[in-house]
Amino acid sequence: MYWLHVILVGLFCQSTAGILDMPKIALYMSQSSDVLDLTWDNGPMHLSQQLANLGLVVHSAADAQPPLGDIDAPSAYIIPAQYGHTLYTAAEDMSEVASFLSHGGLVIVLDAGLGDGAALRDFVSQALSLKGDRKVETYAERSWNLCKQTGTTDKLRRFSRSSGPSLSDAALSFLPGGSFSGSPDWPETLEDARIISTYTSCQHQDSDAVIRPLYTLYGDEMQAFGKVGSPGAVVWLGYSWKDGPQPQWGALLKKLITDFANGLYEIPLEEDPAPTDMLSCIIEAAADVARDIDSIVRVSEGVRMCGRG
Q1: How far apart, in whole angstroms, are the C-alpha atoms of residue 18 and residue 9?
Q2: What angle do CA 82, 84, 85 make, to 5 degrees?
Q3: Which domains does the chain have, with CATH numbers?
Q4: How far is CA 85 from CA 80, 195, 225, 299, in A?
Q5: pLDDT, tens digit, 9 for 90 and up, residues 276-290
Q6: Tens of pLDDT along 45-70?
Q7: What is the enclosing helix (H) or strand (E) of 221?
Q8: Are 185 and 177 contacting, i.e. CB atoms less than 8 angstroms apart?
C-alpha cells in the first residue's frame, strides 16, 4: 500500500509539474486611479484574453497595483495602454515597482494616450532609479538626451500599409534566440495591427542605462530598458491590443515572459557607449527628416490614387 501511495504521488507531481512551473503574470486592470478607462477602451480586455490564450496564469489586479514584493510576486507585471486621465507614475507606488525590478522582475508596459511620451520616460526613470543631471534630476523628463514619441501608425496607414514591426538584430543581445535551449523564437515580424506607437531611439543621461531596440517600424523603435547590475528590465510595446489578440504579438509576449521566468536574461555588466550631444541631435534630426519624407511620399500616393478614382 505504501509503494502504491508513492507511485501515485510521483505520477501526480509529474502531471502537475508544467502547471507549477508556469510563469505567474500580474495584469494591471484598475480604474480606481483613472489610469485605465475600461468603459470605452477594450484593449486591456483583449490583452487579458491574449494572455489566457497563451496558457499563462494571470492575476488581474482590479482595485490597485498588485503586491509585487512578497513571496507570491509574479514573474512579470503587465500594464496595458493608459487611456485614462492619470499617468501610472502619478497614481501608483513606483518604489514597489523599482523593488520588483531589483529582484529580477520583468515589467511590460504599453503606451499612454496623454503626456506625449512622458508615460514611458517617467516610468523607466523611476522604475530603474536612473539618474541624470543633478541640477534637473528631480524632473525625470530632462534626464533623457533623446526619447521622443513619433506618433501612431493609424495616420501613416491612410495611404499605404506596412508589413508590421520587424525584429532588430539587437534583440538577441537582450534575450537569446530560439536556438537556445528552452527559449522560444523571436517573431521575425509582428502584425500590422491598428494603432501601433513608436519612439525614436532612447538615450538617458545615466551611464548605467542599457537600452536595446527590439523591433523597428518606419525607422522608429520598440525598446527594452535595463540597468548595469540590475536583474530586472522594462519592455515597452507599442500595440494597444485594440484589434484583439494577434498570433505574433502573443508569441512575443510568451517569449519575453518565459525567458525571464527561466532565468535567461543576463544582467548587464557594461553600460551603453555614451553618445555625444551632437550625435543625439543628428539622430533626432535624421529621424524627423525620414518621417517628413515618408509623409510626403504617402500624401503623393494618396493624391495619385484619388486622381485615378
Answers
A1: 15
A2: 120
A3: 22-308 (3.40.50)
A4: 14, 19, 25, 33
A5: 444 444 445 445 544
A6: 999 999 999 999 999 999 999 999 87
A7: strand 220-227
A8: yes
